[in-house]
Amino acid sequence: MSWKNTTADFSFADKIIFLFSLLLVITSYFYFWQSTPATYAIIKSTQQATQKVDLKNSKTYRIQGALGISAIEVEKGKIRFVSSPCNNKFCIQHGWQEHHGDLTACLPNRISIQLASINKAAAYDAINF
Amino acid sequence: MMRSISNMQIKTNYQDRLVAGFAALAISIHLLESALPSPIPGIKPGFANLITLYVLIRYGWRLAINVSLLRVLAGSLLLGSFLSPTFLLSLAGAIASLTILGIAWHIPGKPVGAVGLAILAALAHMGAQIMTAYLLFIPHSALFTLLPLLLTVALISGTLGGILVSKIMKRTDALNTA
Question: Rounded to two decimals, what is the model's pTM?
Answer without folding.
Answer: 0.77
